[in-house]
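Hi F.,

I've been meaning to write this up properly since the lab meeting, where we talked about keeping a consistent format for the predictions we share between groups. The idea is simple: the sequence comes first, exactly as it goes in, then the structure tokens exactly as they come out, then a line or two of notes. No screenshots and no reformatting. I'm using this chain as the first example so we have something concrete to point to.
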Amino acid sequence: MRKNSFETIVLGVFLTLGLIAALVAASDRYRVEMRNRRVELTLDYPELRALAAMNNQPLTALLSKFRQLGVSGLAINEDTVASLEQAGAIQVRWTPGGVHINVLDRSGVTAKRLRTAITDHDISILPASAANSPDYIIISAPGERPYSIQLDYGDFRQMGIGLSPTALAVAHSSGLTPVARISNFSGVNEVAINRTLGQLENEGVRTVIFIGDEVLGFNGLEATDTADLLRKHDINFGDIEFGKQKGAETLAIALHGKLVRVHSITAAEMGTMSEQAAIERFTLAARERNIRLCYIRLLTDAGHQAIAKDEQYIAKIAQSISHHGQMSFGLARPFQKTNVPPPLFGLIAWGVAAGFVLLLRRLWGMPTGAAFAWLAVMGLLLGGIAIGMGETGRKLVALVAALTFPTLACARTDLFGSTPTAIMSRWNAARAAVMGLAQASLDTAGGIAMVVGLLATRPFMVKVNQFMGIKAALAVPVLLIGLIAVTGLPDLSQSIDAARQKMIRKLADLFYEPIPIGYFCLVLIGVAALGFVLLRSGNEGGIGVTAIELKLRLILERLLPERPRTKEFLVGHPAFVLALALWYRRRSKAALPLFVVGTLGQVSILNTFCHIHTPLTVSFTRDVLGLIMGAIVGLALFVLVELIANSPFWRKLGFTGKVST
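Output, unedited:
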């Protein structure tokens, strides 16, 4: 079973073509990301009105100050019949013939808003004489003939009647864009939504954030119909990050990602959160998760000099997000569509297939004909899936890439298939270990390019769709490398059958071999650590961040352009460097287990790029910093190990012996 150079060249050609296609797709995504670096800072109108009143300040003057700090949006909740009742604009009384509503506002504005809202919600207006039961509502206003509607008052009380004209006038006079906050309603239909959105468009609204646990049109209209109406009126859907609104997911899918991601801290959270923590939350949301509208609530404990403290708070948020002008402020807009042609995804899939066959050859070995057959089958299969199954198919192919390339990077023929001819000097071992980390990272980068290229479309960039199999992508490569550490790679000088028999024999020998209690404990620790990483992985990890780790994160975020991932620079990369350095020093008993742990660093750097809603520049900077810091930590550990290598305890563990053959 000898290596065939022609076979390797053919696989290399397909791999190179796939990489080129992936880089073209990635560059298109990068272009779209760099063209939308503008964030809208939006404040809450009721909070600002209360702040101005409590401090005896004109509201317009207060808004002017915040506008100079970068605020460009004013969130206005729609009024309801209930809010009119609470404000004393209407009077309600119950009779056997129906509920009577008397409009007390003699200007005619409230009466007009009520009638317009009733029409917009597609509710039939009847003569007052038609009311003959409690199911009717009779509305009377100065200078108008009474009329009635057939509707339960409980539903009517919650009905929105549009944005306050006063609030809209304040927003426009202050140079701020109104951000509408409206709610879903009973009996919602296409006509009602069209009228509601048309009114918002006429009032200058460009983004709507729905109130409550439902989006507009839920349980009454198809998401595609609501999406079409939003596009018709050129109004952006404000998709609340971490929100659980019913219908939001299907609406976002129907919009194909043409939305604005919103991050907000609720009033309840603001009551228990420090100012610095809130600033960092908005900063990370905007810079690292493609949030384009920050809905900011003012400080709840500002106390004395409340306006000055809130101004400082907003200024700090703006300064932190901008980061020396890298991001700007203004009206939020959706990301543009990427223009990756579908055939390009098929070409990337063939590159993934070539990488998969290379991994098969390294793990199991195969003759030339079998390798070409595998390439043809996998190329056609993955290519067909990537093109024919749309986003779901591309996610499947991306998962194959995520499983393949880190494993290929760590399945080293020198470490698992041979023995160093001589013990290297400490300097040469350290240098070779760092070069080994660099080489493995370049191999993993091939998988990164494939994943990024396959998922380089807008729905993934705004988290409408996501990479799937994140836990499998973390666990499977580590487990495969652990298996290789036990069985070794096949000897390419042997026949296929002989190589297979040798691997089976090693597994059988391991099963019956006695294990020292120390190594057994180390294995348990390793398994527990892998389980901990898996529970912490994904978009909603099952285990929270400890207080110590949170403090470390905050320190790194303040000192570095981007914070590297803890499992990379403190665990994976140091273990990788230390393992290779010890192996070159012929300390195999320590090297092989450490190398399995080091595999975690490679799967993690690819995992970083699986979070497509994180900008490419952020992920790249994070991984590079993690590699540099991890290599430094690994070298420091190697120096420490070498200092104690001749101690009696070390010799008793048997870590000074040679690699077994």
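Notes:
DSSP finds 27 helices and 13 strands in the chain.
Residues 588 and 660 are 8 Å apart (CA to CA).

If this format works for you, I'll send the rest the same way.

G.
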